[in-house]
Amino acid sequence: MVNKARKVEEVDQFISNLPKDIQNITVALRKIIFESSPELTEEFKWSMPNYSYNGLVCYLQTSKKHVNLGFHKGNELQEKDINKLLQGTGKTMRHIRIKKTEEIHPEAFTSLIKEAMALNKG
């Protein structure tokens, strides 16, 4: 059960305005993020949900057709990405694009979120 206090109202509002299928994916990803660690904090920044622990860890970016579970330091996660889920060619950011709920892999995502948090411990 996710602690209500960790959820930000702006994010609840943001999610409630999404198309139903995208909303379902976003809610599932948000749950995985919260369950990955009690230390992650949620913020609504840059028009999307962001999650931090000693700095930015990951974010949820929605579009009409998919949701990206993005990592601010994704370039540093690539060697830990055993399932080769990360995409993107930006300087540091990488993301996993999810088009339907069947593409959600809780274990793999949780592992990457924990690795991303570890990068901020340094």
UniProtKB/TrEMBL annotation:
Residue ranges of every copy of the YdhG-like domain listed in the record: 25-117
Gene3D superfamilies, per database record: 3.90.1150.200
InterPro entries xrefs: YdhG-like (IPR014922)
Pfam families reported for this sequence: DUF1801
Taxonomic superkingdom: Bacteria
Name assigned to this protein: YdhG-like domain-containing protein
